Amino acid sequence: MKVPSQRLTIELDPDLVATLRHAAAAVGTTPEALAAEAVAQAYEVGLRHRVLVERIEAVDAQIAAIARFVEEATAPADGGGIDLERLCRYPRKPK
User: Fold this and answer.
1) Per the confidence metrics, is the pTM higher than 0.70?
2) Which domain of life does this protein belong to (predicted)?
């Protein structure tokens, strides 16, 4: 579903307006189109940043879960630790 266009009014400092007009003329577009492109790019960057932060948080949670599992698995046998011989895919090498 296509979202309808929205009108957004922004107020810019005169120096920024002059820079925007100059940049728009250099690439053959209007200042409004260039500003809209800048807003769209900033939104996309912000969205990607948010997704990356969420992924990092998910990875951190999994690393913490693995650390807790390893702590429990390596606890002394009399403390109810997991038998590492059954846990590991490869048998331990004799010492």
Assistant:
1) no
2) Bacteria
